[in-house]
């Protein structure tokens, strides 16, 4: 069977006499494998497409109908019809989407037109070969929230100007989809997500059950430390923010890496951002712009009280914990990709780790990220392009 | 043979039907291999030790003599004597080092005490199993300059307060070296370096030959583009800086990624820094602090004229080129780890890539980097450490 | 009568043929008058001293008792006893302050020991020739809150390390007070305050009456614009902060100078700081350090969404208004020197102007501000002082 | 005689019993006088106009000719002809300016058309009632350089987009000039300049005589300190910059306020900027935007090595001195408004003070500065203006 990573790991482990030069060569090799993987297109047939959009936006429903019809009807992979399409179950009753008139077009559509629910995304993400989003960056973040575990490839169309996450113009959707579903296949950018877990101190007066944002809160059955109870868990694509909420007291936050206390942070708050989130809130707070291929955790303080506390990037193998001091003046609030404000009391903590479930987005072009930066930050940009090299 | 990366690469290449889930699994596996490698200690016998220090500093020469004597005389690996020691050839004549009295101690020392020259470092880096530096961060940068290709493991002692690169206290040198040369072995941090290459425009009036800093200037025999001639090449551990030099005109610099023009930068200059260099000049210019395990290139502008031009981190697989515009107002100056000021004229360029020759430093402890940050930036630090988790 | 500013103003007004050179000379003259005023010490007898401290802190009450006794008993201005002392009315019942034992010492103390209340500060600030604060910067801010109109000279003692506003060591209180109440007199730093006024939109659902922080809320009887009702008013010494409060939506704030809309600000919030406040919250948000003699309003955005929106300093003659857009997504919160969180609804506004009631602090030494900066920001400071010039 | 500032100063001085309330009232009054002065228009007849432009730019010479002709011919102040016009003496021979054809138009022009030289500006600045500049901000800086002492009112036309200093569109020059030279008069913004003086250590090997930039170097006849010799003097409108020049060593600079050492600065350099210069180099180095009415000196470090060394604003009554340490590693370079690079050796110093000769610019509209900021920094600007207040 193709690439046997298990075996590679075993081999490293057994090599008790690993020499310096062997270490250097292997490390270089591993890095090269990573690069090759990034460049490899996926060419498998796309037989099941899911469409995500704002179910309340009339314009978007009309476009969803148009796209659905085109996907169902355009012959692919040697068959007379197109591919299966999953749309939001809320559209079943939508007059604007008008399911009856669509099904009337072709008998096969009765089996090909399907409906997704958050539960289906949670239980069977492998049902979808491709997810298309219509809307803005918010719709992409919602899609990340829908897939708390494995995520299918995501292709994001923008209706107006392109955003940081919406890199395909909807106007050319036929061209883009024909290419991606055809021989060219799609190149994937595996964007890091964070797995964020709340831990309640046994002494905490704040119950996890108050939060209603999380679709699939993990059962609080595992104890990671004496007196700590595991609470809800969220995957984030952009960032986790911890701030003082409505309190006018400064937040004191204890930051741990792995199991060691690094420092106590006095600030308005703290942003733990992925590279994808580096163009969002972290940028406003003074963080650097970070290419999404870089495996790093951005730690960006909000209005820190120590001038030397600068934005930092930590390696993605570290497990970070932010804890409210037992003897502090109060609580803090955590939000996930801008949603789900959860209160943390004294002794409570949130643990952040690179997720084992990255968010795979379809690349529009090799320098996609630079283009999005140039465009959005209004660089004196790539207009004067001269390919002289 | 242990880990066959070639084979892995081949397998990826052959897998024409690479599916999305296979890609995700392989990527996760490759990342895990990388992490395991970082944690593996090297336990091979250290039979040849090189010592680098400032040959003009009397205190350091005395300590070098002390360390040399201890290394030569302390029995190791089942033999009655110690290990071979290479010291700077300049010390041969040093009265303070006093080679004759050292050789008089033991007949074997005549063969065990050896001398290194820059040429030897260049031609035979594999002769050294370990390089010890005595001094400050400057001595470590000098060591990086000595080894322009493969670099042996580097262990850096500090004489006073610890620095960013000098993480071992010289006072405990016996304890540290006994542990590292014994059963514990040494854990290595493979720090990224950059390979920087000057390209001269055919029209350039500035000759490469004026620079005398580089030990091993590459012959200028390869043409990468019509009208461009490859000039000298340097490895840097901290950063490459391009600035306007004594000119009071603003620098205009064209920045390319791979072969595409990204933007024209108007600024006092530009810093291309490794993660190791993120605590040096880049920090003064507003860059973030970056953990040395992160494979990234920091692009930090110096006094940019566009407020939206913020510090950025690019992935290490990108090839960056900074070019002086053909029709600009003038020249710029390039320096490598703070040395070797080279002038670039109109049309000249410098190309920067992650080096295939990283700089391996011996880790003093798992959270070494956080400690160096806390210490040097005077965080309200890890004194209140409570291991409650 | 000494300096007749009215007459000067009249003269300027009448001079219809004001020439350029006359304008230049007059402007230079006015500036010089300002400088001379800053250097003039006040030498009037200090007959009534008010002491402000935290009435709940036991240590401070003990020291207040000690200071009171010393002020009452030390003969001054040719009289056998000392000066009148006003202490917090709350101390009347304090066992630790022990008024009975104090009054027992001298019959005169019955008339010399007096008690202040917030109401007295409000109605008769001219009763006090000097106000002494014991405590930290918070106690000084509290004193500013007590005197919403004219403020007597303030001398602030620090018990531990000196702060930005507490520039006298309590340990040497006798020396300091003997000097200031003697022939040397006191030099005064007139620190700018802001007068902040809330204006409610007629459509606003938020009533002013909910706030209980303000001691002397102005009657809401004046209409400054159609549909706007004047609400409460506060004097601030450090800053006014407008933020989004517990909402996770970005704040949209419309900023007006005089009567013109300057820009719509998208940010987490906005700080309007005095020069005195430049070392407080504004500094954390990226503002500059500003000497308290400079007549300027600092406008420092908190996490602005536009990279070009940088910290600004406006001249103190401008009237600034920050208004919640009529059609925005929500409300904002205003706080005054870190207190008195007031909610602003759609269409509501807060107006900020340089106050006609500055906050006069006694100078400890000519370069007091530089010293406080050096000390608090841990500059590599003035230890190496060489007066070679 | 109108406003007798001398008398006011005397009165303050004589008032030995200056009370606190009198001090407060006088200070408020002085500030009010300052504000009234800013609002007073100058309405004296403009009988002599000087035009400054780049004498080498053909387009500008053509426009200068057009403007000259219009000024000479348009009847003003009850006379059949216009006003006297001074143009650059270099234009006498210019074919494009074509003086002969101009003089041929009217016999009076022989006396009305005059020529200025740098020497005339130096010796008789009072000859000009108004100076018009045609060009960019560079031309305005050149005009500041021409008038090292008293400066006439400056009106700056822009040919293309408006700049920070060029606030009048040339296209409407007739409208603007008719208004200003008519009953409306002109409102003046007195922009602070700095007087910068070089002091040479007696031990310095660097002679002042090498600099040829200064038009009117002061004779080096005054000794301000033992071993210090006063050298050349410059007025700057934007900023003075001290940097390390071509050296790659960090600059160590000792900063003094009045006669006290404040701190030793380790940085790439230091910018001492006026409020006018706050939108120029200081902004690139992280300084705040400062309204030109604010009497402040901006101290903005360039890439400081201490993270706590932040941009500062000092009051304009302070005398700043930057000195090269006697025992430092080397020299530094000083430039004035981007020109006149002068080297400072060990022990040499530059002294900066608010000049007694401000730079008076004609205001285009009350919120001119905000407009220039909005325009140049591309704020989400004043388009949505609603005057609802």
What is the secondary structure topology, with strand pairs?
The structure is a homotetramer of 389-residue chains.
Chain A: H1 5-14, H2 20-39, E1 48-52, H3 58-73, E2 84-88, H4 99-103, H5 109-112, E3 113-116, H6 118-123, E4 130-134, H7 137-146, E5 154-158, E6 168-169, H8 173-180, E7 188-191, E8 194-201, E9 228-236, E10 239-243, E11 251-257, E12 260-273, H9 281-284, E13 289-290, E14 296-304, E15 312-315, E16 320-323, E17 332-336, E18 339-344, E19 349-354, E20 359-362, H10 368-376
Parallel strand pairs in A: 1-2, 1-4, 2-3, 4-5, 5-6
Antiparallel strand pairs in A: 7-20, 8-9, 8-19, 10-12, 10-17, 11-12, 11-16, 12-14, 14-15, 16-19, 17-18
Which short descriptors sum up this protein?
homotetramer; 389 residues; alpha+beta; Rossmann fold; Tumour Suppressor Smad4; 2 domains; eleven-stranded antiparallel beta sheet; six-stranded parallel beta sheet; 10 helices; 20 strands; 24% helix; globular; disordered C terminus
Quick synopsis:
4 copies of one chain form a homotetramer. With 389 residues, chain A is α+β, with helices and mostly antiparallel strands. Chain A has 10 helices and 20 strands.
